[in-house]
Amino acid sequence: MKTKSLFAMLLPLFLLFSTLTFSQTIIGAASIHAPAVDLSQNIGTLTNISVLVTKGNGTVKIIGPLNIANDTKQSAFLAASYASRYMGLSLENYNFTYDIHFITENVSGPSAGAAMTLIGISALSHRSLLDNFTITGTIDNGSIGEIGGVYDKASAAKQDGMKFIMVPAVPAGSQEAELYYLVQSRFGIPLVQVANISDALQYAYGTANPEEHTTNFTFYTNFSVGTLTDANLTCSNQCYNQAFPGIVNFTFGITQQEINAIPLPQFSNARQQMQMVLNQSREIAAKGYLYAGADQGFLDYINAFYFANSGANVYKGLSILDQINQTCSSLKQPQITNQNYEWLLQGELRQLWGSYAASATIGIYNTSSYDSDQVLESLYQGAEANAWCGAANFIYSNLNTSGISVTESTALKSIASSRISRATAYGGNLYLDTAEQAYSQGNYALAMLDSEYSYSEGYANSYFGMNASTLDGMATRIATNSSSLFGAWPTQFENEAMFYVQQSKIAKNVTEAHGYAYQAYSTALLGSLIANDTLVISQNLVPSNTTKTAAQAPAGYADSYALLVAILIILIILLIINIIALYYLSKIVKQRKGGEPARQKRSARGR
Q1: Total structural domains in the chain?
Q2: C-alpha to C-alpha distance for 144 and 214, rounded to whole angstroms
Q3: How many Å apart are CA 583 and CA 587, to the nearest integer?
Q4: Whole domain around residue 468: which residue ranges?
């Protein structure tokens, strides 16, 4: 529920009774604390909702606020309807009047549905609810659905002395579950997840202990690193592996910095877990699975950034995103050569992803209507962008610039187009969007690689139903094929695939084994696709000074033409010289014919 003013606390129920005629038969009444978000000030607030149930004809209404949105009215109707059915009664025989106390402006949103259902049941059953909790969530035939504003609502609940807050159940390990854990840790109030009204009533009546059912979240995955064999796949060509330890250590370094920035003591448990993740990431890399270790470190960085910046308000959040976006946009790519092209393209990929994610997040950021949940979600996406662009900057700064400067052959354009078309069949995502962006900018090699990330996700998903053993076998065959090992990056992907194959085979249950096996197959597939494209790209790089396009002459033609012109000029000059020489020679001959005797006399005299 969202409001435009601060709510007051509980009013006596007789204020509600005074709105009714004495001729109506009162069945029961109840009240509950209900959290909301005041978007005009970007803060949470706690109000009180009361209900009076009387004999009637199925009328459900809300009083209190000046303006009540339709979704709130609909939520009240669903609450009254389900509360009646839960008690084995028919709504048609009762009237429900809900009073949202001391709201004088607007109220909107369906998130009070669960609260209105609980007090409806309480009024009909004459069974009192505890007065030390609050609940938020939509209602749909007894199921409690997800809502927004949990951060601000929990903050208000803690400030107003509530002992716990019930929230809609979310999948374990999801980003929503991580948000719950963050909120619970930050404010020190238990967040109890409930899937339906029956679950909620157990806590509302006090028959279940909320302290035993707080939200937990696990960052650390206990991989069996000790039993790992060392990575043994080596690339077949273009093996510029020497830079990989550097990028891996860079990832670990920024992750450690972010972990150290997580506030204590409220996040001490989360910080400890993230440190365990980082330590294990280093152990995985030490076994030769460099990309697998860096990948775990990358995810650890995002979580650490998320917690370290969890206190940001809506304006601070936008400032952080702006800084990330500016950093990404300012990166300059070095000259591509026949020796660094693979690494440069991988750096460009990460800069492209980071810039796209940052700008897209800023594009929808709204300081006038965002609650703290939305700020945190934006910062989670910003963390990904920041890590990608940080990696790109490291690659650029440490890139080998030796070799021959090259550019792409125009033959890559049609190849990139076909790669994008193939990926499009599986739907859009960040990779496909950025592939199309790279293509529109004429960077066809980048578009090829990017589209493979998109295609591999979609194609691998079509094999998700395979069992773990089958997926492990498929992954192993792909990873160990020499054609999948062209280039340093594809080889690291294939080593990561083999890391997950080993984890799958020693997993403690079928579900875990399948998860690792699927990760192995999708990673092996990506490595194979990137290897093939790396080879194609290497075959279509030409020296920068002999690049030809459809509008240019063939390589060497211009130089040959210039040489012919120079030779022709030289011949013309020689011809002119010969003409001049012949002219003067003819004059000398004439002079000799007229003066011959005189020279002879002088000669005779001299002898």
Answers
A1: 2
A2: 17
A3: 7
A4: 408-550
Which pLDDT score, from 0 to 100, does residue 400 have? 85
Q: How many CA atoms lie within 13 A of 217 on its CB side?
A: 27
How far is residue 76 CA from its own chain's centroid? Answer: 37
The type of residue at 147 is: I
Band the pLDDT of 560: cuts 50, 70, 90: very low
Q: Is residue 229 a contact partner of residue 502, using CB atoms and an 8 Å limit?
A: yes
Distance, in Å, from the CA atom of 403 to the CA atom of 422, rounded to the nearest integer, reads: 34
C-alpha angle 66-68-73 in degrees, rounded to nearest 5? 145
Compute the C-alpha angle 491/494/496, nearest 5°. 115
pLDDT per position as a tens digit, 499-544 = 999 999 999 999 999 999 999 999 999 999 999 999 999 999 999 8
Helix, strand, or coil here: 143?
strand
What is the band of 545 on the pLDDT scale with cuts at 50, 70, 90? confident
Residue type, 373: D
Two tokens, residue 571 = 């011949």
Give DSSP secondary structure letters for 393-439: HHHHHT----S-BEEE-THHHHHHHHHHHHHHTT---HHHHHHHHHH
Q: Which of 438, 376, 378, 408 is nearest to 548 (CA)?
A: 408
Domain boundary pick from 517, 550, 583? 550
Whole-number Cα distances in Å, 146 to 1, 77, 524: 12, 18, 36
Residue 401's Cβ-side half-sphere holds a number of Cα atoms within 13 Å equal to 6
φ/ψ bin of 562: left (φ > 0), alpha (ψ from -120 to 50), beta (otherwise): alpha
Q: How many helices (H) and strands (E) does the chain have?
A: 20, 14
DSSP 552: S
User: Using N-to-C axis directions, what is the helix angle for 175-187 and 268-286, rounded to 10°?
Assistant: 130
Q: For tokens 């009444």, what's the residue?
A: 29
Is residue 37 a contact partner of residue 2, using CB atoms and an 8 Å limit?
yes
Integer Cα distance of 495 and 484 in angstroms: 11
Non-local (6+) Cβ contacts of 318 within 8 A are 362, 365, 367
User: 124 and 87 in contact (C-beta within 8 Å)?
Assistant: yes
228: left (phi over 0), alpha (psi -120 to 50) or beta: beta
Does 544 map to a domain?
yes
Looking up tokens 């025989």, which residue turns up? 93
Q: Is residue 321 part of a domain?
A: no
Query: What's residue 551's pLDDT?
Result: 31
User: Could you tell me if residue 317 is inside a domain?
Assistant: no
Closest by Cα among 297, 368, 355, 361 to 327 = 355
The pTM (predicted TM-score) of the whole model is 0.84
In the predicted model, what is the mean pLDDT of the chain?
A: 89
Which CATH number goes with the domain that contains 100? Answer: 3.30.230.10
Q: Is 167 helix (H, G, I), strand (E, B) or coil?
A: strand
Amino acid 175: pLDDT: 95
d(CA 1, CA 106): 10
Mark which of 138, 160, 182 sits at the end of a domain. 160
Q: Kindly report the length of the chain.
A: 607
Residue 88 or 38, more confident: 88
| Burial class of 465 by CB neighbour count within 10 A (0 to 12, 13 to 18, 19+) | exposed
Q: What is the pLDDT of residue 104?
A: 53
Whether 304 has a pLDDT exceeding 80, the answer reads: yes
**According to the model, what pLDDT value does residue 95 have?**
98
DSSP secondary structure code for residue 371 in this structure: -
Residue 243 lies in a domain: no
Query: Which secondary-structure segment (H or E) carries 132?
Result: none
The first and second tokens of residue 310, run together, are 């969890």
